[in-house]
## 1
Amino acid sequence: MGKWKLSVLGLIVIVIIGIAFYFTNNDKASLASKDVFIDKLQKDLIKNSKAVVYYSTTIDAPTKNSLALFISNDNKVQALKMDGLELGSTTYNDDQKTLLVEDKNSLKFITDAGITTQTFKQNEHTGTKTGYLSKGRTFYSLYNTGVLKDNGYESTIRYGNTEKTNQLSVSEWAREATDNGVDTIYAMVEYYPSANEGSAFRLVQAKLDKHNSLKEKKISELSAISNLENSNFISGLHYKDHHIYSIFSNTGEDEDAPNYYELLDYDLAQKKLTRKPLPQYENSYIVADDSLMIGDNIYYAEREGDVARLNVQTGKTKTLYNLFDLSGYTDAAEEGNHLVRITDDKTYFIYPKKNGNYYLDTFDLKTGKKLSSDAIENMKEILAANDTVFPYDLEIID
């Protein structure tokens, strides 16, 4: 009798496990069958969306894929599936009402009329920057292409619009880039003059000619910031009035020395680089999640949640507020869970709470006043079904 009871009990346990397995997997199947995935014929995607979050697998993942999650005006999510591109990003241009989304072998131009995809023969694996030039209605994307067969190194710029695309190969590694908004991309290129020397930097430009084709040209060798260890352009590059600015860190020629921070100011007209020390950050470790130059100030969001302002004329900085404190975000240690986007007058912060549900908070850029906090529906479920992707970019459609 005891054995019979044990057999029945075992059977019941097996049935319960089977039912649980069925419903767990059925949840994922039902998610796939819901109206959460976007097709290329979908209309009014821009008009009905307020933000896009770019997720992707890492370059070493066995299966590579990317997702562009469109957050609607009523805080629901639809996903665009793509081929994996680590560090992929998006760019929205309001004049054209067009969003550029990139993946490893295409540029996708998204309007309210649908999605136009321009494909390329060469696959890319790591993105660097996307942007827009008004001349020729030109969107662009810069990639870290990598080592070539002859042991050289190369970066690639894909560019164009719904009607025509092209690409330009840039010698060596374009670490960071910015543009003048009209016809020229500026890139900070790192390279090794020889096997026995440290890394060197040069500034190059890629400018649209009368046929709207990009042509590369070297502007200047930057020996003043060459042969330094652990060099990083903390704030990326920023263009204003024929100057290029960046918050730059390094450890001098000693890899184990404390970080040293300075403001780089390159005058394009004079071809002159000025370095202004930022002693207030001495011995600190800063990682900027996003930055934007407005007037004479670079606004940037640090990895630890602080939003700060640096005046490029005086070199003075000021911490304005902390996003984590204002949002009650407590999972900062879980790196890669949150993203920040700074616009002309607002700071946007997307993050998960303890229960896994995602929120998009909006703050006044200069004061930190919270303007809104929206719970995002079904984002948690979509990411649970694609748990090998990481967030790389937040774009606001406004």
Note: The radius of gyration is 24 Å.
## 2
Amino acid sequence: MVRGLRTLVYGFEDLGDTFQALRAQRLYVSHPAATADERASALPTLARLEREAGELAAAVRTLARLRDVLARPGDSSLAHWRGTNLGSFVVEEHHRLARAAEDVPDLAAGRCEGSEAAVVLLAELSEAARRAVSVPAVSPPR
């Protein structure tokens, strides 16, 4: 069931149906059978879909939820996230959201929180994972 939802997300994305992709991804990250690793891997995708759909406040909340899963996974499936591509993807999505929220005054606090979290998360990554991070420049908060 969990993998079927992920397949649905990709299918809807391929069709250009972001709304349905978002619905399927939200179900996927909330599925009770999902491991911490599955949730942590799915949450950056959910944040990306929300960001791309213009749901920036939802993306800020999703990344906060992701940081919570990383800090308190609830199982051992996330033991090595700092040395994998997942760590790079997490940092990159924080930077992308900060960039997208630059001109949204209502999201200034979430943007600052996300930018600061990205710096902390980047410092936690292994050397190899840090080298894999590719992020655009982000303007300082106004």
Note: DSSP finds seven helices and no strands in the chain.
## 3
Amino acid sequence: MSTDKHYWKDAYKEFWDISSEKEKTIKSIIEKSTGMKVIEIGLGAGTADYIRGNALDNNLQIGDADLYIPEKDIYIEVTGPNIPLDFNLPLWIRPDKLNNTRAKLKSGKGKLHVVFHILTQKGTGKKIIRVIKLDEEFYKYLDAGHFKIAKPFIRGRYENYIELPPEHVTILTLDEFLALVIK
């Protein structure tokens, strides 16, 4: 593991605009659909500006969520591939995101934690949004070894991800998530 605090930030800098747009899109969808305020809380969330240092240097935790709905105490991570892929492929989540959420759940922080996974369908360009509910049920599946570990070689390094089957029971549609927020 590199000691360079900016390694991952620099390795993915060509995708900052795409990531920022994903976060802004999710924020807008939730605000328009629910009437609730969504705030950007993660390191660099909603911006493509270069922020020096890592999460800890910026008074955040490694793996903190991108967005937060204060009215409902909901934490939202926004992710997804930056290149078009097939809808039927597994969804990848970084382990640090899952570790952060688990710690928050154990300490009672947050009533709901989710990962918004945005994918552009290869061949059609259609955007597909799926919402992974990170709750006790999800972590039971994780602890039981239900999910595979992917170790792709990307940008000169091996990266680790947890793979979810695209039809997994912990995955909600956007409409199902919005219904949870509204109720």
Note: The chain has one domain: 7-182.
